[in-house]
Amino acid sequence: MAASAAAAIVSPFKCRLFPSQGFSGSARSFHLRKNQKRTVRKAVITAKIDFKPPPYSLDALEPHMSRETFEYHWGKHHRAYVDNLNKQIVGTELDTKSLEEIILVTNNKGDLLPPFSNAAQAWNHEFFWESMKPGGGGKPTGELLELIDRDFGSFEAFVSEFKTAAATQFGSGWAWLVYKANRLDVGNAVNPHPSEEDKKLVVVKSPNAINPLVWDYSPLLTIDVWEHAYYLDFLNRRPDYISTFMKKLVSWDAVSSRLEAAKAQAAEREREEERRKTEYEGENQTESEAVEMYMESDSDSSESE
Ligand SMILES: [Fe+2]
């Protein structure tokens, strides 16, 4: 991930998602400022997005996902996304940001900036490797299973919906299980206004590099349905690849941990919003009292004259 750099250069532009971090605008303005920063910060840049390996050996998922697939998919495709991203962000104001921040900033409300696709693909692949484990598949337990039953009707109904999403994503892309508790007023969100009904599990699919972070959803599980993910093992039989993923590879432990983290994040956001609301109301009340005191004081002095 991004490492430290010398004092940040303050941009005159403001990012809606990260207003204090000052990055937004068109691809054109990005290039202009990118070139400007290079001359100023060249000597202090140490930023680097890591190229992380899967959390198991490259042959650990055989026979369901071959070592050869990993050698190409992780060793070449994933590596290329990370290498290209590092080339794109070096010397820019993005080089000290986390991968997640780079994705949100460069999504630019759907008007993608140049580093977006490599950043999102780097994140998606890391998330995908960690969505699987040797001896995976089967069925989740505990709260995750309870929420799946609540929001899809049954585990079997969820599996069917997830498989359909993965199979029907036209061309390259991804299918996701997400916890939808979006809070941010982002222009490209399906439902930017939060409500109690939003706190549920949903299945979504996304084209190319897009991931649900840009809709402010919390991803829990994903499957890569780019052809490079399955062609060596399944040729063009995408449905067989999807079935094998669900039956033999999914790490429900990882999905459960992500659900726990997503719920904790949603709760923390609510507490933060409540704190802000209370502070805002307190400030308004203080201002209102000050005005009343001023008016009373003004009235008293008039009477004495
Ligand atoms: Fe991929």
Automatic annotation (TrEMBL):
InterPro entries the record matches: Mn/Fe_SOD, Mn/Fe_SOD_BS, Mn/Fe_SOD_C, Mn/Fe_SOD_N, Mn/Fe_SOD_N_sf, SOD_C_sf
A molecular-function term among this protein's GO annotations: metal ion binding
Region annotation Disordered: where it falls in the sequence: 265-305
Enzymatic class: oxidoreductase
Segments of skewed composition (Acidic residues): 281-305
Catalytic activity: 2 superoxide + 2 H(+) = H2O2 + O2
PANTHER family assigned: SUPEROXIDE DISMUTASE, SUPEROXIDE DISMUTASE [FE] 2, CHLOROPLASTIC
Family: Belongs to the iron/manganese superoxide dismutase family.
Protein name: superoxide dismutase
Source organism of this protein record: Handroanthus impetiginosus
Lineage: Eukaryota, Viridiplantae, Streptophyta, Embryophyta, Tracheophyta
